[in-house]
Amino acid sequence: MANDVTKDPAPKSDIVEDIYLWRRKKLAFSILSVSTATWVLLNIYGFNYITIVSWIAMAMISTVFLWGNLLRLLSKVEPDLSGLEVSEEFVVETVRSSQKLMEETTWEPSRFSYLSPHRFGH
Prior knowledge:
Protein name: Reticulon-like protein
Main location: endoplasmic reticulum
Pfam families: Reticulon
Largest sheet: none
Membrane topology: Multi-pass membrane protein
Keywords: Endoplasmic reticulum, Membrane, Transmembrane, Transmembrane helix
Structural class: mainly alpha
């Protein structure tokens, strides 16, 4: 079979390697900027992680809300937000896993001696 030619597969682009070696400069700079800003907020200003995540979530929700309203005012096609719907089974599964986690982590007063009522003179 003289016509058999083995073809090399297309070279794979390893995104982590590209970022590490600064081949994708915009993406690498964006990641560096976001990590530096997060570090500054967490370590220098003393914010909690949940505070930053909440602000980001509120900013995203507000942006989508304003974007949809501006498009409606300008008589443009509204964005398709069907991907943002939460299914009932997702909610049920999330509630079940949350309940299970809370039941597993429910604290017993006897486990924490520093919270003992005898400590406070009762």
